[in-house]
Specification:
The complex is a heterotetramer, with two copies of chain A (574 residues) and two copies of chain B (285 residues).
Chain A (H helix, E strand, L loop, with lengths): L3 E10 L3 H14 L3 E7 L6 E11 L12 E4 L2 H11 L3 E4 L13 E3 L2 H9 L5 H12 L5 H10 L5 H22 L17 E4 H11 L4 E4 L6 H9 L7 E4 L3 H14 L3 E5 L1 H17 L3 E7 L16 H6 L8 E3 L4 H18 L2 E7 H5 L1 E4 L16 H6 L27 E3 L13 H19 L6 E3 L6 E6 L3 H13 L4 E6 L1 E3 L6 H7 L2 E6 L5 H10 L5 E4 L8 H10 L4
Parallel strand pairs in A: 1-4, 4-5, 5-6, 8-9, 8-10, 10-11, 11-13, 12-13, 17-18, 17-20, 20-21
Antiparallel strand pairs in A: 1-3, 2-3, 2-14, 7-14, 12-19, 16-18
Helix pairs in contact in A: 1-4, 1-5, 3-4, 3-6, 4-6, 5-6, 7-8, 7-12, 9-10, 16-19
Chain B lengths: L3 H4 L13 H14 L7 E5 L14 E4 L5 H11 L4 E7 H7 L1 H10 L4 E6 L34 H7 L4 E6 L3 H13 L4 E6 L11 H7 E3 L10 H8 L6 E8 L25 H8 L3
Parallel strand pairs in B: 1-2, 1-3, 3-4, 4-6, 5-6, 7-8
Antiparallel strand pairs in B: 5-8
Helix pairs in contact in B: 2-7, 4-5, 6-9
The chains are: A alpha/beta (574), B alpha/beta (285).
The complex binds thiamine diphosphate (2 copies), iron/sulfur cluster (2 copies) and magnesium ion (MG) (2 copies).
């Protein structure tokens, strides 16, 4: 069998869990392996119990496993919490700093803190020692970690780099020497050079926005969306982006609309609570036909809910948000690479159709890193769909909201020519001025709604994963793609017959109907991270499809193949 | 030369005859003409209310957005194309009520825009509820016992936030108002111009006559608007005598200065450099 | 045939259209006739073209007619605009003040302004003169108008009352004398004493709230909901209500929740734009299980839209508003009397189920007056569903969010006993404190959602109007009831076979299914004031019912029987 | 007698060790004990942020609502049962950022509540973005070039709005803070208490040491907080020397006075009179 290894780093917030996790993930990645990592954390800065989970394999992976091979325990609570997931796995711990009762042979003791002080001169290096020790235990080449440390601490100077490298080496040596031969998961002969990327959902959205030509970002911080704002802010200067932290989310989306009206590709990032505050401005985007891209990192609600966890429970809210009726577009990326391309696409759709596009992600995808094929930025073409200055100069009258067959009116920018551009949140005539007449109202409503029809053509049909015909069709949307595809693979290997119908282009739905034939004779199970089965309802309302069963999870945790398989068994679907 | 005719729009004005808004509309046009700015070089961002209708009555780029939300939209528009003259126009309810939070933070940002508040001390369009600046005791259908809350003093508030230009005009004195607006638009930074605007239909207390009897020009007694404490003191004057004019003016860095990407030209004119995206992608390998 | 008369008063904002309209409506009402009136106005205070329309009959009526018998034109534009609706009707106008070209025999000229100055000493009385003249033309008893004038101007003193009465008399005399015998619509012999009420939708909601024990109201003004706030404010002192105008709608609903948590029956009133700003707090009500009643007067969107007109386009938004999932209740009154009882019921539901209840009305219902049977306040029982002080004192521990079978936890108020009450917008444990564990999350989500099941039992099934079996079943919700019932009557009289299925209890839907049998064999036509057929979609998602056709109106105007019949013909349903 | 024990809640406190919030928690409890108020007589309305968690760490009635929305909920709670001691607890981001509009208008209303702001000059819970009070130049992941906006001066703002009680405390001086809070809770009207609160995890600029070196007590030089102009002047002091204490105090009518229905007892205790509804119904006949 192909070696696959599952590592969890557990401990309190502030103990350096993320540092170890990221360093290990990158290390494996650099050596050409496939990595998948995910994070679980509480809404606090110090203390509590958090973890970082990594799965490494030499074949592509897109989900976490429920089973652990190596637990790096930074506190004794971690041992307690995750012992049961270990089954055949081992624990790496600093017994000098953490009292644990168990005297299991599975426990490998390395004095992280002591080694850190001896080599780096400070306990601060304990996490680097632990990283090194983990690799030592796995008999893994240390050079990859050294490369990672050099890259990570490049800005901090030689001294810090060397301290880290020394700490890593010492941890590595200690573990390797002390436990040589005990290691079950040697990757020693597998190492090659990678051309793949390791990237999280949030970073991929940020990268997609930059590739898609974002010029303006206004946001108010909110977990789990903040990472996208941070990413774009970090690269704003190079990419000519204005980034502004708004005083609240109302301001954020109104800023985006002001920027967009004036000509910038503009975006905001938020989570459900912030989106709630953006609702009125969403309608303004609809009414004034101002392009806007909204990144929504979902988390469990209602209200503050579980701020650091995951859910897919804002779908119908986003679909119907704001008074009145107007066209919008909803995309839900399934993986970081998909997030990259969809984000760039979102900007083109927003510009072409002059409407708001909402990218729906969630904490799970936001904070998970996947090994992906290198993104192809050349695939991304930026098209602004604006009138040119020549076109404008040749016009005697310019009508911002001219009635057209496809509902899309010619767009010009203020200051671009001698024609003034007028946008209005009231119902307005073709020039953009207030008009309350019934005649005008009907024409304008129909014009705006007409845009949806053409937009449908740009929406992708759902992907079918697995065989074309199967007994059971799983249905999913957005971030659950990874666990769902793995579920299909695992169960089909076991002799069951399953396939997956997965949606990333959520609204308006593509009008192709081939997939309806696929589900005609199978049992359909819609798998969602929410309690009411929102995507099922959407399919019912928008595609007139009746789903047989809902498989729902709403405890704040993402799906794993194991969870889905257990639930399918409980529901007697398999 | 830009003329009144350039700003003319052939349309019916939906304000009540005699409304103070007419004077404000005229003053805005005059100030822009004074400064030689053409309609297509101006963007007026307006709110919802009687005041918010203003850009429908003159030729100019217009973003008539939501009630209370002029300032974020205007700030972003300015950052996107700082070659435009950006002006916001909205009511006292809009700016100080629904939009209060944006006012505070826009003052802190200090973008180079002018914010014109038609302060009729009432909600006009919704037919006469108290606004944040309504006088204590004024009775309405909602405030049946009369207004209780301490009226908001927009000038004192702005000075407390170190707003870079703080002024008050009177819709009944078009010449003076035109001067203030001209100065406000010229000012490099955020300029708040609160305008006493009689609402002939709903505010029977603060009428043209009421204002006219009370207003006096700050500059008449040689007042110089450069001291924050003195400005604050003058801002507190309200009653038998109501000062109009520029209360406070300060040169400080504007928001646009804070963005290095805006240094050499408007954001929308910046070209993208495609090679850097490849570099950034590579950093994830 | 029973005499029925349709009157329209047209003119500019500020000319006294409403004064005349209200006075005439009340006059007819007082004499025991059935009255229905509705208003059309623009978003301006002076000028433009507004009108007030009245239909009077001696049998119950619940809609406007498209046909006019009498047009009271306060300006020449009104003649131009409404001439065509007249058919056999007549125009009453002051030709001295308004130049009109037509020299039609249908035109009856009364110098309103001149008579006003002669009798009352001021042009201000012109509208009263017009009111009198209209009654003169109809050969109607003047005493009823005199009673109305006395009542209306009671607070203004004797002098004003007398001036108005004199003006009315003079107008009456002038018209009656000059045009005696020309009058086609004499009601002379029909007059009796009324025990019925004439009331608008907004006033009925206000009255229902007072009868239902509202103690706290916080709102931000917004057409067409402001009338409810005004009504409650006007009676606040007598009814011990605290009324506060909030600085914005976010504040309004958060105030309501603060008041409700502390023990008041609390309410807010708004329209779609304001509701958008309340969305986050709606979720807070859901999460903290704090009762709240939200009155939503719908108007056409998106954004500012058509602020003074009507639409039913916020339904799916309200159904799904706010991040995350939690139970809510939606009611949509069909008439003022129904609005009265439903509003009171809303408070009981909110208290019993500890959730937000949204009453969805619209500009049409808000501003329309109906003749109703006298409301029976004794029918309204106020039940707070709170723990008593004795119950609380007997408890050693009080758990605000105790897990129960029906999902409803015992509610106590802060300060009521020595037990503290803790509410939290985060996911919380039974005590109300933050708890992020999956175990707790599942229990709490299920507890909250469980409340919906029991609530379903309090929701009324749809009403069937007309025969149990019919070829065509019209389906409607909320304010369209009047025009729909009249449509059914008119068409059945013509020999067609129609019935109506009408919903006022929108969510959760009552689970009875008898009505599904009714529509099984008929063509279903869902009639809605919106462009996407929102209630159709709701029926599909919640009751698994497929509607055959949608009959949609989205020009800002309410339905009339005439409009519906024309549309049914166009769609070839009849 | 109420004791520390009465307020004790057996729970893990989720703040970072060394955080300034611990001092604030202690001072609030002490102030309540000083005043002999029992846990069930207190309602703490809190927001979202590190500060907002506070009522989960002491026994009291609690409404932990939304980020930025403490004040409307607290105001209404007070109007509903004015026998409760109502206190709001929230962060600088919460009160001055997201909730800025409510602050302005709550000051105007002057309800008898105490508003405690944990001012760590940073967004703590969301891991270190600038807050409205962050110092110019402070770098964060979002403010990569350092904070640009003029920091909001909450005391000057409150004084400009004629807030009836304006004070600043320091989380590092529990005794002084306890005194301020005691006075604030006793004050009849809206009391704003801004508290300098070191955030040991994210604000490396405004540390315990930084504050300790700068703060001095206003009352030490005999300052009397009764003059709005002087108070405004002192509120502008920020730098080498930072004053703490009561800046401004004024007796004026409180919001509850504005409602005749609140004159003789709490709103929730009022009985309904059913006959008046019949009268009102009759008025429509
Ligand atoms: C979110 C929202 N709430 C309420 C309204 C209704 N509304 C329209 S204008 C207005 C107030 C008008 O007062 P002001 O801003 O002072 O303008 P004025 O009409 O006096 O010029 C209100 C409350 C709205 N359009 N949007
Ligand atoms: C509407 C909304 N937007 C954003 C957030 C995310 N959020 C939680 S706490 C916080 C800021 C915390 O800063 P502050 O209020 O100063 O409190 P501190 O943690 O510093 O005590 C933010 C932005 C939220 N909960 N709700
Ligand atoms: S209502 Fe008042 S503010 Fe509005 S147009 Fe009329 S006079 Fe002017
Ligand atoms: S992050 Fe800062 S404010 Fe939050 S608990 Fe830690 S030290 Fe305190
Ligand atoms: Mg106003
Ligand atoms: Mg803070």
């Amino acid at each position: 069998m192909i070696p696959e290894i599952n590592i969890k780093i557990g401990g309190e917030a502030g103990q350096g869990i993320q540092t170890i996790g990221l360093a290990l993930s990158k290390t494996f990645q650099k050596s050409g392996l496939y990595v998948f990592s995910t994070q679980y954390y509480l809404s606090r800065v110090r203390g509590g119990h958090n973890y970082f989970q990594i799965r490494v394999s030499d074949r592509p992976i897109k989900a976490i496993s429920d089973r652990l091979d190596l637990l790096i325990a930074l506190d004794s609570l971690s041992v307690q919490e995750h012992m049961e997931e270990l089954d055949n796995g081992v624990i790496l711990i600093d017994r000098q700093s953490n009292k644990i009762h168990s005297d299991d042979k599975q426990i490998f003791d390395v004095p992280f803190a002591k080694i850190a002080e001896e080599t780096g001169g400070s306990k601060l290096y304990a996490s680097t020692v632990a990283t090194g020790a983990a690799l030592g235990l796995l008999c893994y080449e240390l050079e990859f970690l050294e490369a990672v440390l050099k890259q990570s601490f490049a800005k901090k100077g030689e001294n810090i780099i060397n301290n880290n490298i020394n700490a890593a080496r010492a941890g590595y040596k200690y573990a390797r020497d002390k436990y040589l031969g005990k290691c079950k998961y040697s990757f020693e002969n597998l190492i090659k050079k990678s051309q793949k990327m390791l990237i999280s959902g949030n970073d991929a959205v940020g990268l997609g926005a930059l590739a898609g030509g974002v010029q303006f970002l206004a946001s108010y911080p909110m977990t789990p969306s903040t990472g996208v704002m941070n990413f774009i802010a970090a690269h704003a200067d190079k990419f000519n982006v204005v980034v502004e932290q708004a005083e609240d989310e109302i301001s954020a989306l109104n800023m985006v609309l002001g920027a967009s009206f004036t000509g910038a590709r503009a975006m905001t990032t938020t989570s459900g609570g912030g989106f709630s505050l953006m609702v009125e401005a969403l309608g303004l985007a609809g009414m004034t036909e101002t392009p806007a891209v909204i990144f929504l990192g979902q988390r469990p609600g209602p209200a503050t809910g579980l701020p650091t966890m995951t859910e897919q429970s804002d779908l119908l809210f986003v679909l119907h948000a704001a008074q009145g009726e107007f066209p919008r577009c909803i995309l839900a990326p399934k993986t970081p690479d998909n997030a990259f391309y969809l984000t760039a696409k979102a900007f083109n759709i927003a510009d072409k159709y002059q409407l708001p596009v909402i990218i729906m992600s969630d904490q799970y995808l936001a904070d998970s890193q996947f090994t992906c094929e290198r993104f192809d930025a050349a695939e991304i073409i930026i098209d602004r769909y604006l009138l040119s200055e020549e076109e404008l100069n040749s016009l005697t009258v310019y009508k911002r909201y001219a009635i057209t067959d496809d509902g899309i009116s010619p767009r010009a920018l203020p200051g671009q020519s001698r024609h003034v551009v007028v946008a209005d949140s009231d119902e307005h005539n073709e020039e953009g001025h207030i008009d309350q007449s019934a005649y005008n109202r009907i024409r304008m409503m129909e014009k705006r709604m007409r845009k949806l029809k053409k937009l449908t053509q740009e929406m992708e049909a759902p992907e079918i994963y697995g065989p074309e015909e199967a007994d059971v069709t799983l249905i999913g949307w957005g971030s659950s793609y990874g666990p769902l595809t793995e579920t299909v693979d695992l169960l089909n290997e076991e002799g069951y017959s399953l396939n997956l119908l997965h949606f990333t282009h959520i609204f308006p739905l593509n009008k192709e109907t081939f997939w309806k034939n696929i589900i005609k004779n199978s049992i359909t199970v819609c798998v969602e991270n929410n309690i009411t089965g929102q995507f099922s309802k959407l399919l019912n309302a928008e595609a007139n499809v009746n789903i047989d069963k809902n498989l729902l999870r709403y405890d704040g945790m993402p799906f794993t193949p194991g969870y889905i398989i257990r639930a399918l068994r409980e529901k007697k679907v398999i | 030369m830009v003329t009144m005719e350039d700003y003319h729009l052939d349309t019916e004005i939906e304000w009540c005859p005699g409304c103070g808004n007419f004077g404000i509309l005229k003053s805005i046009k005059k100030a822009l003409i004074n400064l030689g700015i053409s309609p297509h070089e101006v963007l007026i961002v307006s709110g919802i209310g009687q005041a918010g209708k203003l850009p429908h009555y003159m030729k100019c780029n217009t973003f008539n957005g939501l009630h209370g939300r002029t300032l974020p939209a205007a700030t972003a528009a300015k950052l996107t194309n700082h070659e435009l003259t950006v002006i916001t126009v909205s009511g006292d309810g809009d700016t100080y009520g629904e939009g209060g939070n944006h006012l505070i933070h826009t003052i802190r940002r200090n973008p180079n825009i002018t914010s014109i508040v038609h302060d009729n001390q009432i909600y006009g369009l919704t037919k006469g509820q108290a606004s944040p600046t309504s006088e204590v005791g004024m009775k309405t259908k909602v405030q049946t016992h009369g207004v209780f809350n301490t009226p908001l003093n927009p000038l004192a508030l702005a000075i407390a936030l170190d707003c870079s230009f703080v002024a008050r005009g009177f819709a009944g004195n078009i010449e003076h108002l035109t001067n203030i607006l001209t100065e406000a638009i010229q000012h490099r930074g955020f300029a708040l111009v609160d305008i006493l605007q009689p609402c002939v239909s709903f505010n029977k207390l603060n009428t043209f006559k009421w204002y006219a009897e009370r207003v006096y020009r700050l500059d008449e007694d040689g007042y110089i608007p450069d001291n924050r404490i003195t400005a604050f003191e003058r801002a507190l004057e309200w009653g038998e005598k109501i000062p109009i004019g520029v209360f406070y003016k300060k040169e400080k860095a504007i928001m646009e200065d804070g963005f290095s990407v805006l240094k050499d030209g408007a954001l929308i004119k910046k070209q993208k450099n495609h090679s850097i995206i490849e570099e950034l992608i590579d950093s994830f390998i």
